[in-house]
From TrEMBL:
Pfam families (alphabetical): Peptidase_M16 (PF00675), Peptidase_M16_C (PF05193), PqqF-like_C_4 (PF22456), PqqF_C_3 (PF22455)
SUPFAM superfamilies noted in UniProt: LuxS/MPP-like metallohydrolase
Annotated family: Belongs to the peptidase M16 family.
Known cofactor(s): Zn(2+)
Pathway assignment: Cofactor biosynthesis; pyrroloquinoline quinone biosynthesis
Alphabetic keyword roster: Hydrolase, Metal-binding, Metalloprotease, PQQ biosynthesis, Protease, Zinc
Protein name per its UniProtKB record: Coenzyme PQQ synthesis protein F
Function: Required for coenzyme pyrroloquinoline quinone (PQQ) biosynthesis. It is thought that this protein is a protease that cleaves peptides bond in a small peptide (gene pqqA), providing the glutamate and tyrosine residues which are necessary for the synthesis of PQQ.
Residue span, Peptidase M16 C-terminal domain: 176-322
GO molecular function, one term: hydrolase activity
Ranges for domain Peptidase M16 N-terminal: 18-139
This protein's encoding gene: pqqF
Length: 771
């Protein structure tokens, strides 16, 4: 059944966009305010971002403990906000029955915020911590230098993040400006509200009208045109190691230019043979490429291509080839390019979430091909870019991953592959997990070769909404594909061939350059490997050759799990797995964490960060999930709001490598790792009180109809690794039986580290009690 959409304007000026999508399990709201950091008074940098933060601190009607963030998180949903140059976005995703409650909280907090001075003071410290952490990252410093390439008279080159010094809370002028900004822009004429879900359009319209009407009436402001983006040529960007930035600026583009650029970047990022990236890769020059739109407003646009090139590459030749490719694209029939783009857009739309659909609608860029206006903008965009003749370019052929026909050949499924039935085939979403135990110490060196061999396929997969991931933890390699079932089958078949016999160019290529991560994200990335880490093995000094890789695969033991495949797809899946490497294996023994273990992880950032993972045995995981659910709000309230330890504060129940447990994380600009841990333990010592509504709420999250398809698949895989009951209803029933005494006992066991602690931090252990 196709999606249906509806657009209407409310009497107060608010524009409402509705999307009925029957396949969705969740509903989402995305509210865009057409005002951002560049619309705030220049005297008070960061005012718009600061106001965005203040909205989430609760109101008289919905205090913090019952506000939007707690409400959505309690339902296992997603919620966030973002302030850009000319827009501010608020968005959340929840079960359909909870859309009304979320929408009421969202609209009410924006209409009637509590701007009390004391809460402003606390939140300014959070903004300052966020600014300090962000500004210290190499990526932020690089982006700042990119924005300095435009005219200094354009607001894009200024400071807008906000910090302790720019947010002068006790200045009367600042408070007047804060209130005036809210009155001026948080009114109906400045707002687009988009709702997406499985509900009928009439039901979505009723909700949108009811809560959208809370905003005062107004009209869209016709603001003055911004200063010229350029006052001459773009200022050059110096290369940083292997990184090179190609920057492009445009003035006076027609409407729909941003959608036109999306088509161009879709073509540019296609790394299949015939295009610019393929030519760079064939020469051995391509180590990485990303594209990003830095700014788009009122006919102005700034975007860049970030290239990672080896020292042997010629930047001037790289740019000349790009100009030749742009000239080739300029000569192609736009309708033909647009038809191929439409196929990709349809594929993306069919696989994305309610939240992605709502956000696309609120930004005016749904998953559709370009209309006549967009095609005109595409032609103007191409004319404004440097272009030349020359080069042997061609448009790529049809993508095999999009072929939905069932292959003629078939083979029974291998015995080492498990089948899970948590996800009905009617969802048209499947996930396949393959895992190899590789005891050879050469696996670490071969991992880089495998990653390089898979990269082009992963790029193709991402284009067609197929997730294809390869990762390593301890002595294990894992490959996962998720998406449309036949795309998964075709993608896995190609991936296995590449992993078994990587092409010659992948054996000697330089290692990929990993982007720097803020400390807390670096710790999260290190957690799986820390759980699986065994004894250090000496690395043989041999030269890597195909026979060595063949030997590694012969020693490997594999297992796998297929989720969401229809019976008619089993034989094609079996055919794709016919040549799988290694011998059948069984799930490994569970990881055992004993005592208090502290692992120091070196991070690129210097701010103190700490993760505490408390694993639990299978029989305690229902109680553990409820305990984590009840702790989520208090941890955030105490550590983030009251103690202001930092902006990165979270707690949750996580399953990592088949190990379930409570996970706490904090990054702080001023508290040490030992102090962070002390505050956390002090909070846990205060205990929790059972809330029967919260228990019922959590149990309801373990229903297939309430979980995202990818979540269901991941649940099944983690249960398979842990050799525990994969039945979702069993976990739901178990949660409903947990009582206060069990929570108290479990909390006592956690504080005593009875089941072990694994603490990851970017500092050494504080004392000898850790090992």
């Amino acid at each position: 059944m196709p999606d249906t959409t509806r657009h209407l304007n409310l009497p107060n000026g608010l524009h409402l966009t509705l999307r009925h999508t029957p396949r969705l399990k969740r509903a989402a709201a995305a509210l865009r305010v057409h005002a951002g950091s560049h619309d705030a008074p220049a005297k008070w940098p960061g005012l718009a971002h600061f106001l965005e933060h203040l909205f989430f601190l609760g109101t008289a009607r919905f205090p913090l403990q019952d506000g939007l963030m707690r409400y959505v998180q309690g339902l296992g949903g997603q919620v966030n906000a973002s302030t850009r140059e000319r827009t501010t976005d608020f968005f959340f995703e929840v079960p359909p029955v909870a859309l009304a409650g979320g929408l009421e909280r969202l609209c009410q907090m924006l209409v009637e915020p509590d701007l009390g001075l004391e809460r402003q003071r606390r939140e300014r410290e959070v903004i300052h911590a966020e600014f300090i952490a962000w500004s210290r990252t190499p990526e932020a410093q690089r982006q700042f230098s990119l924005l300095q390439s435009v005219s200094p008279r354009h607001p894009l080159s200024g400071f807008h993040a906000g910090n302790r010094h720019s947010l002068a809370l006790h200045a009367r002028g600042f408070q007047q400006a804060l209130s005036a900004f809210h009155r001026r822009f948080y009114q109906g004429g400045q707002i687009t509200l988009s709702l997406a879900g499985p509900q009928p359009l009439d039901e979505l319209e009723q909700l949108g009208e009811q809560f959208g009407a809370l905003f005062p009436a107004g009209v869209r402001e016709q603001r003055d045109a911004p200063a010229a983006l350029l006052d001459g040529q773009l200022r050059p960007i110096a290369a940083s190691g292997s990184r090179h930035d190609l920057l492009f600026a445009h003035e006076g583009l027609p409407a729909a230019a941003e959608q036109a650029l999306d088509l161009l970047l879709t073509l540019l990022n296609d790394s299949r043979p015939g295009g610019w990236l393929a030519e760079l890769r064939q020469r051995g020059w391509l180590q990485g490429c990303t594209t990003q739109v830095l700014y788009a407003h009122a006919g102005q646009m700034l975007w860049h291509i970030q290239l990672l090139l080896p020292a042997t590459a010629s930047l001037s030749t790289t740019q000349s080839m790009l100009h030749g490719w742009l000239g080739f694209i300029r000569r192609q029939p736009a309708a033909q390019l647009n038809d191929a783009y439409a196929q990709l857009q349809h594929c993306r739309e069919q696989s994305c979430s309610a939240l992605e659909l709502a956000r696309r609608d609120s930004s005016g860029q749904p998953f559709e091909k370009l209309d006549a206006q967009g095609l005109a903008a595409f032609a103007t965009l191409l004319d404004s870019l440097p272009h030349a003749d020359g080069g042997r370019w061609q448009l790529p052929p049809a993508e095999p991953l999009l072929d939905s026909t069932t292959p003629a050949h078939s083979t029974p499924l291998p015995k080492a592959l498990g089948l899970d039935n948590n996800l009905p085939p009617t969802r048209q979403f499947a996930s396949l997990y393959l895992r190899w135990h590789i005891p050879s110490p050469l696996r670490q060196r071969f991992q880089a070769i495998i990653e390089r061999a898979l990269q082009p396929l992963q790029e193709r997969a991402a284009r067609v909404a197929l997730q294809l991931r390869f990762n390593a933890s301890g002595e294990y390699w894992q490959l996962q594909a998720a998406g449309q079932p036949m795309a998964v089958i075709r993608g896995i078949e190609e991936a296995l061939a590449l992993m078994q016999s990587p092409a010659a160019e992948h054996w000697t290529a330089p290692a990929a350059v990993e982007p720097g991560l803020i400390p807390i994200r670096a710790l999260l990335k290190a957690l799986p490997d820390a759980l699986m880490a065994g004894e250090e093995q000496p690395q043989p000094s041999c030269i890597l050759t195909p026979p060595w890789l063949d030997s590694l695969w012969q020693q490997a033991r594999w297992q796998g799990l297929a989720v969401g495949f229809a019976a008619s797809q089993h034989n094609p899946l079996g055919a794709a797995l016919q040549g799988i490497m290694g011998q059948p294996g069984t799930p490994r023994a569970k990881v055992a964490i004993t005592g208090r273990q502290w692992r120091q992880i070196h991070t690129s950032g210097s701010e103190p960060a700490l993760l505490l993972f408390c694993p639990l045995p299978t029989e305690l995981q229902a109680a553990g999930r409820l305990l984590a659910h009840l702790l989520q709000g208090p941890v955030y309230q105490r550590l983030r709001v009251e103690l202001q330890l930092g902006y990165a504060v979270f707690s949750a129940f996580r399953q990592v490598e088949g190990v379930g447990g409570l996970l706490f994380g904090v990054q702080s600009p001023h508290a040490s790792q030992e102090q962070i841990l002390g505050h956390l333990l002090q909070l846990l010592e205060g205990g929790v009180s059972l809330d029967s509504n919260a228990r019922q709420q959590l149990a309801g999250q373990f229903e297939e109809s309430a979980m995202g398809n990818a979540e269901v698949a991941e649940w099944a895989w983690q249960a398979h690794l842990a050799t525990q009951n994969p039945d979702l209803s069993y976990m739901s029933r178990s949660i409903l039986t947990v009582e206060q005494a069990q929570l108290d006992d479990l909390l006592s066991q956690l504080l005593d580290a009875e089941h072990g602690w694994l603490c990851l931090a970017n500092a050494a252990a504080p004392n000898s009690s850790w090992h």
